[in-house]
Task: structure prediction
Amino acid sequence: MNFGQAIEKLKEGKKVARKGWNGKGMWIRIQVPTEKSKMTLPYIYMKTADDNLVPWLASQTDILAEDWKIVN
Result:
């Protein structure tokens, strides 16, 4: 799927990843803040190959990619 379709899946609460990412087990997801959160707007975060969670920004390659997939 393309990046636009991947964003729609994120908005549905799904995790998505690119087949082209080298790290095993990497994915992104949207975090929607609650009233107890310090953040006030939704943001995208990534689970890295070394099992950390970090804020994520798309690269041009990610935006133009057609290899996005839903992760279970």
